[in-house]
Write a structure and sequence with these properties.
about 100 residues; alpha+beta; two-stranded antiparallel ribbon; 2 helices
Length: about 100
């Protein structure tokens, strides 16, 4: 398989698992860290250093306020996933865990 086709499969196929890929606004923030509770993501630190819950993050992303993420779900719970782009450094799973401050 040619390299371009392999890259397309690596980035386009995973997008099919997303329920929605919102279009970010020009001034959209990015996610710079994760907050966790019992090992599961409970929230996100944004590039303005604000920490939001998982639910707030989903709502902000749907409104175009967060870039680089899509919406997925597991059972009745919506959450954010990185939009596949063949770069590991910007994957949510590569981000540091931060204290929620609360």
């Amino acid at each position: 398989m040619e390299e371009t086709a392999k890259k397309t499969l690596r980035t386009e196929l995973p997008k099919l698992a997303l329920d929605e890929i919102p279009t970010p606004e020009d001034n959209a923030l990015s996610i710079t860290g994760l907050t966790k509770h019992r090992g599961r993501i409970s929230g996100y630190r944004l590039s303005d250093n604000r920490i939001v819950s998982r639910q707030e993050g989903v709502a902000l992303a749907k409104a175009g306020k967060i870039r680089g993420v899509g919406i997925a779900h597991r059972k009745d719970t919506e959450y954010l996933k990185s939009i596949p782009d063949d770069k590991e450094g910007n994957n949510l799973s590569s981000l540091p865990t931060v204290k929620s401050g609360g």
